[in-house]
Structure formats: C-alpha cells, structure tokens
Amino acid sequence: MVKYYYIDAASKQQRGPIAIGDLRRHPIARNTMVWRSGMADWVEAGDVEELRFLFDKNTSEPKQNEQPFDKQPSVKDVAPKRADSYNNPESSSFDDIIQMPKNWLIESILISLFCCSPISIVGVFYAAKVESLYYAKDYAKAQEYANKAKLWALIGLLFIPACYVVLIIFGSMLGLFFF
Fold first, then answer.
1. Is the model's pTM score more than 0.85?
2. Phi–psi pair at 44, nearest 5 degrees
C-alpha cells in the first residue's frame, strides 16, 4: 500500500504515513510538500502524477496495491531520507536525519525579562529564525543562527554583572576624587 507523508501548512509539522486513499481527508493543496518511499526528496503535491485525483475531479483515484504481510515496508523504507543517502545503500535513514538545533528562544526571552538585559534581544532575533531556516532545509544557516542566539543570550546574561562591576569601579573613582 502506498503511504504518503506531507508537511502540514498550519503547523509546519510532518504528518503521516497516510494511505493514498485517505489523502482526501487531509488539507493537501497543490503546493503542499509530500513524500513517499521511493522518492528522492520532498515535492509539491501538484507535481505528483498519482496525486492529481486530489485536485482534478475528472481523475480517478489510483488502485491501492496491497502488499502481503511479509512484504510490508520496514521503517527504513517509509522514513524520509535525504537525497544523497540514496547513493549509499548501506546508510540508514536514521543516520541521515538532521536534528533541529536548540534555538535558545526561551532563554533569550527570560534573560531579557528577568535580567533587564537589552543585549539578549539580539539573541531573540536570531533564535526566532532558527526554526524557519531548518524547515526551509537550510541546515547550516539554522545551526549558525542557533549558535549566534546562544552567544547573545550568554552575553546578555553577563551584561548585568559587567554593569555592576563598572558601576563599582566608577563609584570608587568618584569617591576618591570627592572625599
């Protein structure tokens, strides 16, 4: 049985596996990204010939090919892979999954609020972009922004003690001149 995965437009999360006959019950538009076992990469649903029935009322739904129980696809067959993993048959689909980097958004916001650190707002800016870059498959840029968000969150955390040190030094110098 052919099963598809798709990226939900509202939540930007992967959904599936869903049998081809059940796809009509899901919010799939022509520009929805879909994938199934055997495809090299995610493509728009409107570009997949066997999914035309979702958008064209005159096209009939394809026949479902039932596989015998012992021929059911394994996890390796149904998990989406990166395109370069198809060139190496020994690689596992789980070896190719790129995990989303930690975005440091909550930490940056909490440091901004509780430490009154305006510098950590730069961390909030970078952290807010990590997820969208990851889902756009710009993994290197997502990791770069995650690293920048972490750096600015830490700088924001150190900003307040640094201000106190500067104030103590400045106050000491003023005390020497006036007393």
1. no
2. -70, 140
pLDDT tens-digit map of 31-60: 888 988 888 888 888 888 888 888 877 665
Is the distance from CB of 40 to CB of 83 less than 8 angstroms? yes
> d(Cα 83, Cα 39) in Å, to the nearest integer?
9
| Closest C-alpha to 75, from 99, 89, 92, 97 | 92
Name the amino acid, one letter, at 167.
L
Preceding amide of 62 cis, omega within 30: no
Tokens of 36: 């199934």
Q: Which two tokens stand for residue 163?
A: 């201000």
Per residue in 93-130, is it b (16+ CB within 10 Å) or e — as a string? beebeeeebebbbebbbebbeebebebbebbbebbebb
- The CA–CA distances, whole Å, from 171 to 26, 88, 115, 118, 176 equal 66, 66, 22, 23, 9
